[in-house]
Amino acid sequence: MKPISLVKGRGAQSNRDGRYNATTHETEHDDWEYFDNDSTTRTEIASEIARTIIAHNQSPDVPFEQSINPYRGCEHGCIYCFARPTHAYLGLSPGLDFETKLSKKTNAAALLRKELQKPRYRCSPIALGANTDPYQPIERHSLITRQILQVLSEFNHPCTITTKSALVERDTDILQEMAKKHLVQVNLSITTLDPELARSLEPRASTPLRRLRAIERLRESAIPVNVMVAPVIPVLTDPELESILEEAATAGAESAGYILIRLPLEVAEMFEEWLQAHSPGQTKHVLNQIRDCRGGRANDPRFGHRLRGQGVYADMIAQRFKIASRRLGLDRPTERLDCSQFRGQPQQLDLF
């Protein structure tokens, strides 16, 4: 569906049909200057009883084997989010539905406890936030991510957290204890330092300033923090690469990484819609540079290429990141998490 007006507080400008829908729809403008977006922008939260909780990954270019996603969909509304197409599997739109029709896995902590107690379970770090943000706004009241962390801490199980939210500060009490045992790594993702650009790119994520402050507060509690410049968007945000790294280093980040934007499936058209609505004069330039980094396409799904891209522009970004990271002392590898402390089966004395 084509957008007819800016949707306040949301990243997507339309609710285009998912690729598995039996029918497709198009919007016609009847020249009336009244648009009622209330029905498409109201957040709806459903409770879900999950059958499994740990997802297993075999991708060679992703640094984890296991992940947990407490929520389906993400209210942060980041227009570039590569997870948007997953909503099509639910018969929902990767557009506005992805950021307004959410589900929470209410039994996540209980399922995790059961999984960790299985005799055949083998410990390796679990990634929280591999798909949707574990600290999106509904976590403030749902507390599912906090419950998961409580279980992981109890079992001495290592994990990584990737988020765009300062809400991660709330769980400092748990994270601090895990950090003492080398069981946690927090990745704070920053796309831009421009608050106006951030408000339209990722409308319900924490502001860039709040994320930098979160880095400071986590480091004050001796919790390791890695800054992720993600995604780097050619032309639109890549000029800020060095500035983001400098601000993150000043805030106390210990290491850094970056991911070049990729636009899989429905995300490509939605991102173009966003550009036309918010930055029409740069639309062609931005899209052409993205395609130049992706072999002429909006997305290159090949392992080894999808996170960094290829070509002259992608190589230039990689070199700039390398030089800036080295200069700022952010080029050291992230801390290796300790799996040796994991306690699976409860000890006999624990029963009394």
Explain this structure.
By secondary structure, the chain is α/β, with parallel strands linked by helices. It has a single domain (43-335), classed as TIM Barrel, CATH 3.20.20.70. Helices cover 32% and strands 13% of the residues. The protein is built from twelve helices and ten strands. The chain has helices at 38-41, 96-100, 108-116, 139-142, 144-154, 172-180, 195-201, 208-220, 241-251, 266-278, 283-293, 312-328, and strands spanning 44-48, 55-56, 66-68, 71-72, 101-105, 126-128, 159-163, 184-190, 225-232, 255-260. A seven-stranded mixed β-sheet has the order 2-3-6-7-8-9-10. Strands 1-5-4 form a three-stranded mixed β-sheet. The longest helix has 17 residues, at 312-328. The relative contact order is 0.13. The model is unreliable at 28-37 and 347-352 (pLDDT under 50).
